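Field reference: sequence -> structure
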Amino acid sequence: MSLILKRLVIFLIYISPLSYHALSDERLRIDSDNLTIKKDDSSASFTGSVEASFNDYKLTTSKLTILYGTINGKKDIVKIVIPSKLKLIKPCSEEIAIADRGIFDNKTKKLTLTGNVMLQQKDNILATDKLVYSGNFKAINHKK
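Structure field:
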């Protein structure tokens, strides 16, 4: 797929009402090397060098899949699945999270990171098997 076509598809996803309501009305922007849209299962898979930006966060990974559906009677993003190693950065608070995989559930507004999770905020480091960012990414829970 040509670079112009990829950017056009990403732009259309970015401005669509499906992405507008996700993540607490914050804009979701995704750039990737490849994009596969499957209308039959209402999904979009981004592969290669994937960068997603939302709120004040930047996420990098090699694969990210968006599952669309209906939330409160509106078409919206239901889940974002990150099945491969990921890095989540929030520059303004010097926060970095690394994990083997992650899932964002738009109904509950929770991002769950699992597998070799490490959270670093300035000089503090937390290592755990599971980390949950709750609602607007303001509360953090971890389980060993």
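Note: The CA atoms of residues 35 and 46 lie 5 Å apart.
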